[in-house]
Design goal:
This protein is mostly helical. It has 18 helices and six strands. Bound molecules: carboxymethyl coenzyme *A. The site of carboxymethyl coenzyme *A (CMC) has 20 residues, from loops.
């Protein structure tokens, strides 16, 4: 970390001794005030629920400029990666810090494709679930269970174990998501095909059956690959921070990633793509475009608890750059499938237009996020709504792993252990039950 010449001084109105705090500069973004010694120096903690002003780690992986609406993976703008690279190149970049050359890409692709099968025993574990279980419940279980199948890559402090676990997770997530889907619809599992691309293989495992040949559509393959790229990492979001915190105890990588999957499930995070599409369905059922005004009214009513799903972001106070790319992909996919007049897409565009002009959204800087359009693309591809968040988890796995490995390699890393402002009862004595 690069120390700044600037220092912060914390003074107290009661005349307590003031404290000087170091300030560090990143390569981009706001400086940070180092408060690690604050408790030792003052006997006080800082208070920041929701991490509104707290950097929980140093990182070199992903950078977001929320005001500009900019997203960089290892310094590269997401727009350039989404147009010039594929998902596996992006994985290589996130894991290793640089884009691969041709030979490196080939080697990495071979490595990943050599790990796409899962232990045959996994299907018996999967069979223990109800057929109608939510895919994210299944994924939380299956990913955690990988630690019971791959004992030779569970030591988080062993760099070789971490490397193999990373490749296994990236390679096996599509297989597991497709298995969860096939189990739900009662079709036979389809084994991975290593001659296909990462996205092509996923489409094949999802939609092929043993009775008919399945031809991967290049447009859908590219669209899915783009969904994967756009979701690959997003710095210290809730699920990534969960993975870091979970991994900080020294638990194995599969367990840490399973914690990330569980966190992602929530509708304020990865579950928003499912929630956004269900919201569009609901508006459509109620009467479609004509009912948008009424719906927006409900959203603005603080007592209604209704949110415009797929809108707003903790960091972006501008258009989410991923949403722009996703809207572009949405157009491409719908055109390819002859669904240009898709009523749900028309509804989404109209809803976006109205929200972007409304004072409530403008004043709060609420813009569409990636989830606003990703559901429409996934639905057009044929992915069921309940599987959307599992697809997000599949794509985010590389980001979780890169962040986890970065943390373990950081000499300053410690087990994560936040403090609290205690508001409960002071010490008191237990009375005998007859006297309570
Ligand atoms: N609809 C209506 N009002 C909203 C929305 C929304 N989607 N998002 C924020 N607001 C309001 C919020 O009520 C608050 O208003 P007020 O100042 O009057 O109290 C103001 O905007 C600030 O919002 P906040 O809740 O303090 O912001 P946050 O940073 O804590 O929450 C968020 C961010 C993403 C959880 C929230 O915007 C949200 O719930 N959005 C809908 C869910 C969603 O689309 N999530 C996906 C995020 S992107 C993908 C991912 O990273 O997983």
């Amino acid at each position: 970390m690069k120390a700044s010449d600037n220092k912060a001084t914390l003074s107290f109105s009661n005349g307590g001794q003031s404290v000087e705090l170091p300030i560090y500069k990143g390569t981009l973004g706001p400086d940070v005030i180092d408060i690690r010694k604050l408790y030792a120096q003052t006997g006080m903690f800082t208070y920041d629920p929701g991490f509104m002003s707290t950097a929980s780690c140093q990182s070199s992986i992903t950078y977001i400029d929320g005001d500009k609406g900019e997203l960089l993976y290892r310094g590269y703008p997401i727009e350039q990666l989404a147009t010039n690279c594929d998902y596996l190149e992006t994985c290589y970049l996130l894991l290793n810090g640089e884009l691969p050359n041709t030979a490196e890409k080939e080697k990495f692709t071979r490595l990943v494709t050599n790990h796409t099968m899962v232990n045959e025993q996994m299907q018996f574990f999967l069979r223990g679930f109800r057929r109608d279980a939510h895919p994210m419940a299944i994924m939380t279980g299956l990913v955690g269970a990988l630690s019971a199948f791959y004992h030779d890559s569970t030591d988080i402090n062993n760099p070789e174990h971490r490397d193999i676990a990373a490749i296994r997770l990236i390679a096996k997530m599509p297989t597991l998501v497709a298995m969860a889907y096939k189990y739900n619809v009662g079709q036979p599992y389809i084994y991975p095909r290593n001659d296909l691309s990462y996205a092509g293989n996923f489409l094949h495992m999802m939609f092929a059956t043993p009775c008919e040949e399945y031809k991967v559509s290049p447009v859908l393959e590219r669209a899915l690959d783009r969904i994967f790229i756009l979701h690959a990492d997003h710095e210290q979001n809730a699920s990534t921070s969960t993975v870091r915190l979970c991994g900080s105890s020294g638990t194995n990588p599969f367990a840490a990633i399973a914690a990330g999957v569980a966190c992602l499930w929530g509708p304020a995070h990865g579950g928003a793509n499912e929630a956004a599409l269900n919201m569009l369905y609901d508006i459509q059922k109620e009467g479609g475009v004509e009912k948008i005004g009424e719906f927006i009214k409900k959203v603005k009513d603080k007592n209604s608890n209704v949110k415009l799903m797929g809108f707003g972001h903790r960091v972006y106070k501008n258009y989410d750059p991923r949403a722009k790319l996703m809207q572009e992909t949405c157009n491409e996919v719908l055109t390819e499938l002859g669904l240009e007049k898709d009523p749900l897409f028309a509804l989404a565009k109209q809803l976006e237009k109205i929200a972007l002009e409304d004072e409530y959204f403008v004043s709060r800087k609420l813009y569409p996020n990636v989830d606003f359009y990703s559901g429409i693309v996934q639905r057009a591809i044929g992915i069921p709504v309940s599987l959307f968040t599992a697809v997000f988890a599949l794509a985010r796995t590389v980001g979780w792993i890169a962040q986890l490995n970065e943390m373990i390699g950081d000499p300053e890393y410690k087990i994560g252990r936040p403090r609290q402002l205690f508001e409960g009862s002071p010490k008191r004595d237990v009375k005998p039950i007859s006297a309570r």
